Fold this sequence. Notes:
alpha/beta, six-stranded mixed beta sheet, 14 strands
Amino acid sequence: MQKKYEQIVDWVNTEIQDGTLVRGDRLPSENELMERFGVSRQTVRRALEELAENGLVEGRRGSGTYVTVNTRQHKDEEIRIAVMLTCVDTYIFPSIIKGIESVLTPEGCTMQIVMTDNAVEKERMLLKEFIRTRSVDGIIAETVKSGLPNPNLKLYMESENLGIPVLFVNSFYKDLDIPHVSMDDRMAGYLAARHLVECGHRRIGGIFKSDDGQGHLRYAGYMEALMEKDIKVRGGKVVWIDTEEMKTMEEEGDRFLKRLKGCTACVCYNDETAYKLVRICQTAGKCVPEDISIVGIDNSALAQFCPVPLTSMENPAEELGKTAAEMMTGRILRNEKMESREFEPKLVMRSSVRVVHEI
């Protein structure tokens, strides 16, 4: 004879199989289930425990019990993952997409690629559309201007509460308890600066991005490497730029040369910044690395094809994408827990750094 709690378990299973209950839906309250099935609260809780153990539901304190299983798999429908990046066709982003696609395709998932242009307004529009239509089963997102306050954080939490899991890739919002897959940006800044120190440089400037959290972390690593060797940190030799200023760097070359005057080396926020600094120096008749050594971060194609091939810290972009996709599919298909993972960068040496013997 079927036990009473099993009646509730079977009913929830049937509702999920039929598509009546979908991921993100809240189950009836304990009182409602007690009345519907004529059972005690203890019996209801035993049923909910069974469903949770099977990965079908999860309880949320003060809110209720929600369906967490991917219901589309029961109806032979494709699982759709939104991949929301600041850019999709340049820099390291094609490699991130390649890594994601290498996992999603064999799993039978489809990828919806959207671009924010690193604009808060566009990020907001896309998130609101995903929430309104419930058209995706998960969101892999790169953050937008994560070094600044962002009004869209509540939308990410709303997505999570609806049962649409979110995973950040390449960067993250420090104010959200949402896992991320990225390079260890602090370590990247540290290793870049340490390499210059090991090459004999003591007057080391920096160019960092102010509106991205990555810029703050890379700056922190740069500072740590200099202070570790008791090298004076010259605040006046650090240039902070935002997204718009990065686009016009070469038009304002004199500003950067003035701030970096007297420096024998510079740590740059990324390869794009380093590439543009090389061109600024060449336009002004300065030689890299003879007059100034330059280190980039990310080891992108720009580092390889720069007029002076750049020493850079390797960002394993394809591996980031692959790992993010594995975590997201594990969460949706098998209800596995997602946890943050940061990859250690590796130094790739080319021609933009020289060894000096400073007094």
